[in-house]
Design brief:
By secondary structure, this protein is α+β, with helices and mostly antiparallel strands. It has 7 helices and 9 strands; from the N terminus they run ααβββαββαββαααββ. Strand 4 (66-76) and strand 5 (79-89) form a beta hairpin.
Amino acid sequence: MSKAQKFRLTGRERWRMKKWYTVLAPPVFGEVPVATTPADEPWKLLGRVVEVTLYDLTGDITQVHVHLYFQVWKVEQEYAYTRFKGHELARDYIRSLTRRKSSKVTAIVNVETKDGYKLRITGMTWTTYRCKTSQKRAIRKVMIDLITKTASEKTLDELIQAMIFGDLAQTIFAEAKKIYPLRKVEIYKSKLLYVPTPEGHKKAVIVPRPGLVEAPYGTTL
């Protein structure tokens, strides 16, 4: 069908032409189906972002406040494959942790993983009581140093697990509590900034498989 013929179609006819695709979680989350989405052309799915909660993947109701964002980067047959785009904790959950007569320390840091991915990570620490400005600076420095060090020593998948399941927050808590008594540490937010180009990808001669649509490397769309 030509572009002119498609343009003349009514809204209902265009909808009937669309095909449904199953969106799969990234490999670090087991590539389980997380959603279905329609499109008349597979390339139009590239860059589309799907939001799910960690509860949807694990079935643990205590993780319902963790929101995950997956971005479609490849479509093959009736499946849309995604990569980790970022995460964010629910604002209601963050507000429940903020109390009077205590301090909240926030650290935002850009990091690079061992396998070349770049992310922006936001960590938050809540103290038991209100602390001094100098103590806040010291806690923030600990957060920045540990987040940067952890990211440089881990692959993207390992860093995702450390952020989402609390290992990184526990590491920060153990070190920062030496400066001032703490109540809670959370990795509040993360965002994928850059995807590295695989070595030799541009030099290789790639013959696409039938029905395969893939986004370019070196970007997050």
